[in-house]
Design goal:
Aspartate Aminotransferase, domain 1, globular, about 40% helix, 14 helices
């Protein structure tokens, strides 16, 4: 039998030969990133906001006996009245009876999908759903099936054959393509089959909805969606997440969600950051329109035949093949653009792309320059523009 080191080396060699070896690279801190940052999820610029930093520090200083860490899980020593006050304010913001804070969006989705569906139930998830949704479904005892991306006909065919209680897991904005879920079609369809919708609002939290409340609230569908997951590490510029839903849902997760039960709670500083970031956004809600304006500007000038249509801050430029995609990213990086390649197996083979994230702080000149550079690359790789 091979030693562990031999097994590890062989697996890594196989991945390297496939052109898919990952490695950690040192990147700049948020405030070091310039106007040419087209990679981070800091859509509204809150991660680099010195005003928000100052507000968080003032709030922490005002907390009596805050300390540095939570000291334990929420069910042991890690719960306090301040955390529950912030959860109540989040519930109000997201127009839900209750909310429960988690350490990350990954942990929140893992908790929901692994604990709610039971044996003989069915989970139906969009084929492009985030890995944490798929991992949560895999940990569940329920049957699980994917349906074609945003295809309501395929979803209905799956619903007609589903057994037990049915859960439909989707995202408001998909993290790789940047397109949105057709909630206005999906919600009535789910209701016809008495299915529960689990909506991951990771990339719409902050960027959409009144006071950053996300897409479901913005579309006035929140009361018809049983479970909503909000992530704070993207547009809100901080860390953490919450699940919003009924009081019974929150009580259930406290009792049955293992990633919640057995994880050390978030420290007071992180809870203050959540409170302050939403307060800051409420006072600077114009940032949402600023982001939409930057997105519209990009769409006006990015005349690429290799892009996936999206009206969100997430845009794509497809360069099939890991090597081609790397070369395209390197060419843009040499011109000062912070853009990263998304390679297989993160995305399917043939769908390798540059993932382009737009931000409020990208200047119009930076966007114009990027579009020109992308057009040149598309010509170089014989990918024609839309109007060619």
């Amino acid at each position: 039998m091979n030693s562990l080191e031999e097994v590890l080396r062989d697996k890594l060699t196989q991945r390297e030969q496939a052109g898919a070896l990952r490695s950690l690279k040192i990147t700049a801190m948020p405030r070091e990133l310039g106007n040419h940052d087209f990679s981070s999820n800091d859509y509204l610029g809150l991660a680099r906001s010195t005003e928000l930093t100052d507000a968080i520090n003032r709030r922490v200083a005002a907390l009596p006996h805050a300390g540095n860490g939570a000291t334990g899980s929420r069910l042991l020593t890690g719960n306090n009245s301040y955390t529950q006050e912030v959860e109540a304010s989040l519930a109000s913001l997201f127009k839900a009876p209750a909310s429960l804070i988690f350490n990350s969006g990954y942990s929140a989705n893992l908790s929901v999908l692994s604990s709610l569906p039971q044996k003989d139930d069915t989970i139906l998830y969009d084929e492009l759903a985030h890995t944490c949704i798929k991992d949560g479904a895999r940990l569940s005892l329920a049957r699980r099936f994917s349906f074609r991306h945003n295809d309501m006909n395929d979803l209905e065919a799956r619903l007609s054959r589903a057994t037990g209680r049915v859960y439909i897991a989707v995202e408001s904005v998909y993290s790789m393509d940047g397109d949105t879920c057709p909630l206005q079609e999906l919600v009535p369809l789910a209701e016809r089959y008495n299915a529960t919708v689990i909506l991951d609002e990771a990339h719409s939290t902050g960027a959409m909805g009144p006071d950053g409340s996300g897409m479901a609230v913005d579309m006035n569908l929140h009361e018809r969606i049983g479970i909503r997951v909000y992530t704070f590490g993207k547009a809100m510029g901080i860390h953490g997440a919450c699940v919003a839903g009924s009081e019974n849902l929150v009580r259930y997760l406290v009792n049955f969600a293992r990633p919640f039960i057995y994880t050390t709670a978030m420290p007071p500083h992180s809870i203050a950051a959540i409170e302050c970031s939403f307060a800051y956004l409420q006072q600077h809600i114009y940032l949402q329109q600023a982001l939409r304006s930057k997105t519209e500007l990009y769409l006006q000038h990015a005349r690429l035949g290799n892009r996936i249509l999206s009206t969100s801050a997430i845009q794509t430029a497809l360069f099939p093949g890991n090597q081609h995609c790397r070369e395209a990213a390197t060419a843009l990086q040499s011109q000062g653009f912070d853009i990263r390649p998304i390679l297989s197996p993160t995305v399917p083979q043939g769908a390798e792309r540059l993932r382009i994230c737009l931000h409020t702080y990208n200047t119009n000149d930076s966007i114009h320059q990027l579009c020109a550079a992308l057009h040149q690359l598309a010509t170089q790789f014989t990918i024609l523009p839309d109007n060619a």
